[in-house]
Amino acid sequence: MTAGRLYIETLGCQMNMLDSELVEGQLRRLGYETTADMQAADVVLINTCSVRDHAEQKALSHLGALKKRKAKHPDTIVGVIGCMAERDPDGIVSKMPHVDLICGPGELNKVPAMIEEIREHRTRAVALSQSLSRRSTPLQRALEYDSVEALDLSRDPAPGAVLQAYIRVQRGCDKFCTFCVVPFTRGAERSRPASSIVEEAKKLADRGCKEVTLVGQTVNSYVHQEDGRPVRFADLLERVNDVSGLERVRFVTSYPGDFTDDVLDAMRELPKVCEYLHLPAQSGSDAVLKRMRRMNTVPQYVELVERAREKVPGITLASDFIVGFCGETEEEFEDTVRLVERCRFKNLFVFKYSPRPGTVADKRLEDDVPEAVKRERNMRLLKLQERLSFEDNQKLIGRSFEVLVEGYSKAAIKAQESEQDRGCEVDRGCEADRGVGAGAAVKADTHGHAPPARRPREIDLMAIGASSHRSFADAVAGADLRTRVIPETPGDDEPHPPHARPARDWRRANQLVGRTRTDRIVVFSGAPNLIGALVNVRVHAATALTLHGEVVG
Ligand code: SF4
């Protein structure tokens, strides 16, 4: 018997995506089934992001949409987990009194017990880690008991279900950039034991995972103690590189202020570590960086980029920029434009500054750049990057790249969905049946839940330069997340879900998509059995976003 229907809405960064996956895994093991329909769920959890006001408003709007359901079905449990729960529990309760569960990101292992408690005692359950100490160093802290470690260790993906996966290597942040709320919501920086990370990578590889992305707020600051000796990030890369079955190892997000050359050496020497570096710059002006309390100057950043290109042949870089930060003058913004032109990133994540309560910038600096100016600077930077990406991608025409095939391309999926929708209309299918068409099935993808019928999952294409990683700026956009799993294709001899077309129709839409080691998106024609494989693709056309090619060799 099922314990109930579960719906998790995930907003924010890759950390949240991973947290949702782990919480969902715990609840599934207790008998919960996931549903793609928030209004039909018995337990609804909104995994929130506080990095930008827009993301918090989005969370509140989801909660608002649950008021009626809660009034009609008082047994429905409505929960807020993640950064907003930690940042503003009282605000949530005063605006949304129907919320039953509030749990910060450092306490997520308690969610199953909290749900039980609410069911039994009909009281609100709250778990926050506001008392976490910062007095010890990250190395000392790594040895302290970490209750969330159990959550990471509980991961148990089904064999063959996951092609690419995130692995958390570090939690929290000690950098306190003046604009950022993360150190307050995710607490002090602490690294996970290398042995646990390697075990997790082995488990994933055994179940068919080909690519892991090690995630941390400042992943290169990773340090853990083992037998009295520090294990640093370059050492960790070496250990994960040795996990058999994995083909690729990536990592996000790096902090330029303490990025050391041993990581670049590891990137060059370790065959599975991909030549892609996400290195947020935030601004091209030293004065702005100082106001942001970043630990590096612009010349130091440029030097690091140059060193990375020198030490790791063929490396691509992506970056984050904030435009319109407190007091940013036109000249300071022009410095940012010059930095973008000089560094020629593969892609950028740009966002307009918005003050976050509790941060130093909010308390001490004035948010004085008009919204229209922020918007104009945002557009200018994106347009510039579009031109640079287009020019750089054109230079790749005629070259061949190793591509990990991730699934069907968006265009192919759209064609399938419109065909399936037409099928629904002809068959006068009910709402549930329409789950195989565009609306509900895409929604299922969006939330990373099992879709109502077997279909290939859509690949997430980012605007202006593409990236497989959700960056800080990406997180602040509050965009929905998608999980990349191995698409399922019914074979000719397998039963098909209602209204899904037989295999020959799935194969007709044979446009596949994958990524190069340097994180460039490549679209090409190929048979579905290539999904999950490494193939060589020769590029014959390119846009700013995508390379187009054909399988060779
Ligand atoms: S921007 Fe990154 S490094 Fe700075 S405080 Fe936030 S999470 Fe930490």
Structure description:
This protein is an alpha/beta fold and 553 residues long. It has three domains: 124 residues, Rossmann fold, CATH 3.40.50; 257 residues, Alpha-Beta Horseshoe (pyruvate-formate lyase- activating enzyme); 153 residues, no CATH class. It is built from 21 helices and 21 strands. It has a six-stranded parallel β-sheet, with helices on both faces. It has a five-stranded mixed beta barrel with strand order 17-18-19-21-20. Strands 7-10-13 form a three-stranded parallel β-sheet, with helices on both faces. Helix 15 runs parallel beside helix 17. Bound molecules: iron/sulfur cluster (SF4). The site of iron/sulfur cluster has 11 residues, from helix 9.
Provide the CATH topology of the largest domain. Answer: pyruvate-formate lyase- activating enzyme
Strand order of the largest sheet: 2-1-3-4-5-6
CATH class of the largest domain: Alpha Beta
User: What's the total count of β strands?
Assistant: 21
The CATH homologous superfamily of the largest domain: tm_1862 like domain
What does the main sheet amount to?
Answer: 6 strands, parallel
User: Residue ranges: pLDDT <50 for 5 or more in a row?
Assistant: 419-508
Ions and ligands: iron/sulfur cluster
SS strand fraction: 15-25%
The mean pLDDT is 83
* Cα-to-Cα separation, first versus last residue: 51 Å
Helix share of residues?
25-40%
User: How many discrete domains?
Assistant: 3
Per CATH, which architecture of the largest domain? Alpha-Beta Horseshoe
Radius of gyration: 23 Å
Q: From the helix content, strand content and strand pairing, which structural class follows?
A: alpha/beta
Task: Count up the helices.
Answer: 21
